Amino acid sequence: MEKKSFSSGLLRVKLRDDFILESPIMPASGTFGYGDELVDMIELKYYGAIISKTITLQPRSGNLPERICETSCGMLNSIGLANIGVDRFVREKEVFYSNFHGKRIVNISGSCEGEYLEVIKRLEKCEWVDGYEINVSCPNVDRGGIAFGTDSHVLRSLIGKIRNNTDRFLMVKLTPNVSDICSIAVAVQEAGADAVSMINTLYGAAIDVERKKPALGRVVGGYSGPGIKPVAIALILKVKPELDIPIVGIGGICNGEDAIEFFMAGASAIQIGTAHFSNPAVAKDIYNYLVNYCAKEGISSIEKIVGVALR
Amino acid sequence: MEKKSFSSGLLRVKLRDDFILESPIMPASGTFGYGDELVDMIELKYYGAIISKTITLQPRSGNLPERICETSCGMLNSIGLANIGVDRFVREKEVFYSNFHGKRIVNISGSCEGEYLEVIKRLEKCEWVDGYEINVSCPNVDRGGIAFGTDSHVLRSLIGKIRNNTDRFLMVKLTPNVSDICSIAVAVQEAGADAVSMINTLYGAAIDVERKKPALGRVVGGYSGPGIKPVAIALILKVKPELDIPIVGIGGICNGEDAIEFFMAGASAIQIGTAHFSNPAVAKDIYNYLVNYCAKEGISSIEKIVGVALR
Amino acid sequence: MSMSEKIRQNSLPEERKFLDAIIERNECIASETYEMVLLPEIDFPPSKPGQFVNLYLKGIFPRPFSIAGRYGEKEFKILYKVIGKNTEYLSGLQKGSRIKIAGPLGHGFEWKEKEYSGFVLVGGGIGVAPLFYLWDNLKNVEAKKYFFAGFKNSSEIVEPDGLGNILLATEDGSAGYKGTVVDLLEEEIEKFSSPLKIFACGPGGLLKKAVTIANRFNHDIEIALETVMACGMGLCQGCVVKYMAEEGEEFRLVCKDGPVFDGKKIIF
Amino acid sequence: MSMSEKIRQNSLPEERKFLDAIIERNECIASETYEMVLLPEIDFPPSKPGQFVNLYLKGIFPRPFSIAGRYGEKEFKILYKVIGKNTEYLSGLQKGSRIKIAGPLGHGFEWKEKEYSGFVLVGGGIGVAPLFYLWDNLKNVEAKKYFFAGFKNSSEIVEPDGLGNILLATEDGSAGYKGTVVDLLEEEIEKFSSPLKIFACGPGGLLKKAVTIANRFNHDIEIALETVMACGMGLCQGCVVKYMAEEGEEFRLVCKDGPVFDGKKIIF
Ligand SMILES: Cc1cc2nc3c(=O)[nH]c(=O)nc-3n(C[C@H](O)[C@H](O)[C@H](O)COP(=O)(O)OP(=O)(O)OC[C@H]3O[C@@H](n4cnc5c(N)ncnc54)[C@H](O)[C@@H]3O)c2cc1C
Ligand SMILES: Cc1cc2nc3c(=O)[nH]c(=O)nc-3n(C[C@H](O)[C@H](O)[C@H](O)COP(=O)(O)OP(=O)(O)OC[C@H]3O[C@@H](n4cnc5c(N)ncnc54)[C@H](O)[C@@H]3O)c2cc1C
Ligand SMILES: Cc1cc2nc3c(=O)[nH]c(=O)nc-3n(C[C@H](O)[C@H](O)[C@H](O)COP(=O)(O)O)c2cc1C
Ligand SMILES: Cc1cc2nc3c(=O)[nH]c(=O)nc-3n(C[C@H](O)[C@H](O)[C@H](O)COP(=O)(O)O)c2cc1C
Ligand code: FES
Ligand code: FES
């Protein structure tokens, strides 16, 4: 798996001058393990970048079961950022990440500014890390997370400090569970982020009618999958005109046409989450659809349609 | 159509001491016309109350098309509160409302406090109106609406003033598009509302990939249908422990099992919206399901399961 | 008078039903074009050409289809073109399958026999469907009748039963006149004796041109419109079209105030 | 060594594939219970009893089913019970239909022939499925073999092929021993000569009791667990179970670390 492009550049996207993806497709954090889980089963070349599950300073075992639940239009999860912690991550995943052909993004979270900064500090030592996605919006942890994602002042301070500690690609993942996502996005941009990714899961819950109990052990969790796509598209359409930095679209993308919707709404790249569960080869399917789409439409680059719906 | 109950009381629910519904099922505002639209086609007896589409002081023609769009898990609308205005409403709908066997609720909206109060004033003169549902959350109008629904101070003032002007049943409809719905719900209760109904539509949008344009003329609209059910359930589960007044559940209810989920999550009654489009007789189906459910579970009243999931 | 009658008199001119129907026939009769005969489980209310039915198939919105003919008190026919998810699904349904339907919905065409010396039907593509039904109903009318039917090419042609002047156009000239059906209309209409009433159904461009022609020659015209519909029965206010009323521009509901409108009042 | 081999060596012991398979057989063999034979379009990797496959059917999550037997390099068998949307759909699929599958997934049972004088398989209901496959694999093992199979009633009985001691229980006594399969196990196990290894699969209650019995007599026990799975392949961290590791309680993934676990380490 050498570091060379296999596409003809049709699907190449630039998220920062020095951060170019050969494919606009990434796995959404937490839905693709640490990135290496399917290495024997599917071809990773369709991903322009790999994004790890959220890594925290200390290992986390996550929430009590039930942690997942299928709904008619998607799923609920309350995994609670279960992960092996930054030190084990650095130790165990180096081989895989070093060999991956595309960009390597580590998604990180913390319960206070200090934790975020410490995780960054340890990852800065790994030359096999190309960038960070900052999770400030996980609805499944009691402390930390969510507060950063809903308060633009707190967030601006956090991102500003992270920016001061890394020159690497810095992407901030936004939560949809806010009254005014634009002010949050703008704060993130002003604090020096290179991109925003949106959206993280919506608040969601279900009742297990048989047991007369909430389906998730934690009662409320994160809702993802096809049912959240209209929300993601709406928020991207709202945020796009307010931002100069690129948007990475996430939310219910299952197939090539969904992906096109996100590009047209203003996303420069996309992440696929829940769709991995119903189709582990979804990235390949979308990749091929996009290549054909460009050919059919006679466009030289997928970047040409980014935001066309707003023009 | 006489004013007598046809159920054996199994499905009777009390929303205020003097506001008792013989069926917990209502149509959601805006998805059932003024209430009289299907009078020749389906049996209205399955509805414990009728709720009008939103009525404003002046007639409104609504937004430019496209106003509706189907999505994989629901629909988008940007109707924009199209309605005939309170005066024509009062004139033209008196016959129907006076003859309806259940409670008669008028959903109202305005662009400022004065407008809300003036609409109430005119409706107070109609003895055929039993209550109001205050729409403070329509995402489809430029001025007014949404601001009330997202700011608990503004909302408290509005509802307080409305409360001073009517003794009738007063229900406030909450928007899910806020960071903290609990504080909004509590403000509404403190201002004297008798119930909250939740949820109104989520922000949503879709791209028409063929036309490379947003599917709705207004770009962003309101998302409803099965895809929003997990959000509605989550927000009801969150709000329920904070409130003493009853919650009327809305959001993606399509069948009897969905309805049971809402009751178990804490709703004392339910509204059906989008499901009317795929099944005009949905109220009958749900009604019958609930009657059978009570029988099967051996419970004497559907009220027995309200909020059980939280116990 | 029962309440529902009272209400109906007030706002709803027609009786409508939501019920099960059995598919009696479902046949491909032209390229991607099917004829389906439906047998409602109970009597289906009287209907008029131009009215439509909702079929409850896949997804959130039902799908509207014009009634293309009736057989007695129950059965009726629709013609449909496979263009997406629901029509695809519909085309795969077997004889004997049961589906939910609602109808008849909306307002149909109006024809006052005495006032016109001729009736001119103009249909483009699957837009001929409601005109087939109208054509049946005009059978015994004494005035002259002309059915202009236009298609992309000969593989798409579906023709109405019954006698009368049928004028065919195909865009590629593979059958009949070469050009659009409104081109043909424009060439022929001068030959017919006034006053005429035109009934048109088809794509927006066709309707707009047909109205222009009607205006030019001062004929009356009714057009059957299509918009995306969520309910098809006046519940949602989604299906609006701009209409020039006496008080000025306003929105009308295609499903309830239409789908048939005075062509001269529609703002395209 | 290719990268994927390197990585696999590091963390993934088995080869897995995501591919199309043809349904070769789909037959009802007991009440609501079906046997399905699947023919993957290309060679299916080697598998072990206890491993499972994902079937990609309806909705968001695939559905996990234990491999219940193999025929050569490609074909394998599953046994399933119709309990909901996906199994309902599965039961309606015709021979020749194509579905997506992934597997073999997870870790299977381990048996070290030399260490035990007997192997005891304990299956409740459809939990017998992976034990059928194990039973096949134990065919040539010299140690004693016992298959305890329990069902609600005689209409649900499915029995393994091959020789050996099959001990049957039904809760209503309509066939074999009257009672649960662990009641029967408890009565019989004292008669067998130690050391034994027990393999159990079935409802949680059964597994818990089987572990208690194993503990009492100091036998080894492996149990195959079930939890709701979103991915079945270690992507989501959803399928956790509490496990007593050396460092204390921790979560393990049923799909990846299991579904087969040392029964004594699971915290029920
Ligand atoms: C009053 C009325 C009467 C109609 N009568 C007939 C008829 O007799 N025969 C017939 O074949 N069709 C008729 N139509 C159109 C028919 O309703 C649509 O073809 C059908 O809804 C498409 O559904 P689908 O799921 O197959 O396609 P979809 O997947 O919904 O759409 C496929 C494509 O068709 C477009 N489309 C969707 N709805 C319509 C529409 N209403 N009109 C035109 N394009 C649309 C979409 O934008 C999309 O690009 C009528 C429509 C109306 C409003
Ligand atoms: C590793 C593993 C191996 C399995 N092997 C087999 C097998 O060989 N044969 C077989 O018939 N089944 C097996 N199962 C169970 C099987 O996966 C479920 O029966 C199936 O997912 C139900 O899907 P459904 O859509 O039909 O039912 P759903 O509509 O999803 O559920 C119906 C009811 O079943 C319950 N349910 C859902 N998932 C499970 C589950 N995993 N276990 C038990 N109950 C569940 C639900 O709570 C619900 O009440 C296995 C499960 C696992 C985790
Ligand atoms: C099981 C699961 C686990 C997730 N874990 C994380 C996580 O650890 N960090 C994070 O930033 N987002 C996490 N997410 C959110 C996804 O990355 C993504 O934002 C969301 O699922 C919406 O995309 P989708 O609809 O394509 O799944 C998780 C989602 C799921 C379904
Ligand atoms: C076409 C349409 C029009 C609506 N109009 C109104 C309205 O006028 N006033 C209002 O309070 N809510 C309105 N709503 C919101 C619904 O009342 C309801 O809150 C929402 O659709 C969620 O419920 P559902 O998923 O069951 O449709 C409308 C919804 C739809 C789909
Ligand atoms: S389609 Fe709903 S009002 Fe016309
Ligand atoms: S089911 Fe996803 S990790 Fe086990």
Characterize this entry briefly.
The complex is a heterotetramer, with two copies of chain A (311 residues) and two copies of chain C (268 residues). Chain A is an alpha/beta fold and 311 residues long.
What tags apply to this protein structure?
heterotetramer; A: 311 residues; alpha/beta; TIM Barrel; 8-stranded parallel sheet; 4-stranded antiparallel sheet; 9 helices; 31% helix; 20% strand; globular; disordered N terminus; C: 268 residues; Elongation Factor Tu (Ef-tu), domain 3; Rossmann fold; 2 domains; 7-stranded antiparallel sheet; 7-stranded mixed sheet; binds flavin-adenine dinucleotide; binds flavin mononucleotide; binds FE2/S2 (inorganic) cluster
Can you give a write-up of this model?
- The complex is a heterotetramer, with two copies of chain A (311 residues) and two copies of chain C (268 residues).
- Chain A contains nine helices and 16 strands.
- The relative contact order of chain A is 0.16.
- Chain A is globular, with a radius of gyration of 18 Å.
- An eight-stranded parallel beta sheet of chain A has the order 3-16-15-10-9-8-7-4. A four-stranded antiparallel beta sheet of chain A has the order 5-6-14-11, with no helix packed on it.
- Chain A has 311 residues and is an alpha/beta fold.
- Chain A has one domain (13-62, 80-202, 225-310): TIM Barrel (Alpha-Beta Barrel).
- Chain C has 268 residues and is α/β, with parallel strands linked by helices.
- Chain C folds into two domains: 3-105, Elongation Factor Tu (Ef-tu), domain 3 (Beta Barrel); 113-267, Rossmann fold, CATH 3.40.50.80.
- Chain C is built from five helices and 16 strands.
- Chains A and B meet through strand 11, strand 13, helix 6 and helix 7 of A and strand 11, strand 13, helix 6 and helix 7 of B.
- The complex binds flavin-adenine dinucleotide (FAD) (2 copies), flavin mononucleotide (2 copies) and FE2/S2 (inorganic) cluster (2 copies).
